[in-house]
Write a structure and sequence with these properties.
Elements: H1 3-15, H2 18-25, H3 29-43, E1 48-49, E2 56-57, H4 59-86, E3 91-97, H5 106-116, E4 120-126, H6 129-137, E5 143-148, E6 158-166, E7 168-173, E8 193-197, H7 203-215, E9 221-226, H8 229-237, E10 243-246, E11 257-261, E12 269-276, H9 282-293
Parallel strand pairs: 3-4, 3-5, 8-9
Antiparallel strand pairs: 1-2, 5-12, 6-12, 7-10, 7-11
Helix pairs in contact: 1-2, 1-4
Length: 294
């Protein structure tokens, strides 16, 4: 049995005539009759009562008509869905990001994408940078957002877009003596204890802060490390120490914490979107287009 047999059968059932059905299908009546007879033989069921004029469906034929219509409708839906996915109008996109990205332009990109493509579902994964890169290379994620402090070693297989460059800001307890200053030099922090991002999670940021402090003539005294930005802010508010973080952290309003710009140039981090060069997904390209428009 082929799909065309179902279409032939439905046409005869709806027209209640082999002649009219043949005209509708643009085929000869004789071949159409033979195809219906073959269908009945394959099913071992009589579908039509040919003694009546117009011809009538048998009880078995009526049941087969309902199921045949459902099958063809499901097929049409499958075709439409496949076409929409191919055209990038339907489906899902797996996007990875680090915790610090959530305070940047990332939410605006997501909101714009959802508004333009409401039937595409972004599947979001928050991970540390090294794990995101590994998942991207293993085709477990379509695109990642992260702060790049150096070239990716996997750059030959990856494409990147730099979205924004960020400076560091000093994060201080609100009652800290330096909070009275409008801006702070790195050298002002040489005697302070630092709350740093956990090296295993934010190695690039950790190393860059360490490097900047060394350039200013001191090694940071590390009182505590933490995984998430909000945790670092909480520890600073509790006067565990001070911190240096990307400027987007100022989007987080935390009681007991103040932010101050750094006098020195500290543009250290490029907010970057990264994807595999061999990923030809139309949905991915639509997402990249939105990133480029932001």
């Amino acid at each position: 049995m082929e799909l065309r047999h179902l279409r032939y059968f439905i046409a005869v059932a709806e027209e209640q005539s082999f002649t009219k059905a043949a005209k509708r299908l643009y085929i000869e009546q004789g071949p159409l009759s033979k195809q219906i007879q073959k269908l009945e033989k394959d099913l071992n069921v009589r579908l039509f009562n040919r003694k009546n004029i117009p011809i009538q469906l048998t009880a078995a034929g009526q049941a087969f008509l309902e199921e045949s219509r459902a099958i063809l409708e499901q097929l049409e839906q499958a075709v439409r869905k496949a076409q929409r996915i191919h055209q990038g109008e339907l489906g899902y996109l797996t996007v990875g990001f680090t915790s610090s990205i959530a305070n940047s332009i990332f939410p605006d990109i997501l909101r714009t994408f959802r508004q333009q493509y409401p039937e595409i579902e972004p599947i979001l994964q928050e991970e540390q940078s090294s794990l995101l890169i590994q998942k991207l290379c293993d085709s477990q994620i379509d695109l990642i957002f992260l702060y790049l402090y150096h070239e990716l070693s996997e750059a030959d297989d990856l494409e990147t877009i730099s979205i924004a460059s960020e400076q560091l800001v000093a994060v201080l307890p609100k009652n800290h003596p330096l909070a009275a200053q409008s801006q702070i030099s790195l050298t002002d922090l040489k005697d302070e204890e630092f709350v740093m991002p956990l090296h295993q999670v934010g190695a690039d940021l950790y190393e860059q802060i360490y490097h900047l402090c060394q350039q200013a003539g001191f090694v940071p005294k590390i009182a505590q490390t933490a995984v998430y930005m909000v945790t670092i802010l909480g520890l600073v508010a509790g006067e565990t120490g001070i911190s240096l973080l990307p400027s987007n952290v100022q989007n987080i309003q935390r009681e007991g914490v103040v932010y101050r710009p750094i006098q020195e140039q500290t543009k250290i981090a490029q907010l970057t979107a990264v994807w595999r060069r061999d990923n030809s997904s139309t949905i991915l390209q639509r997402f990249i287009d939105i990133i480029q428009e932001m």
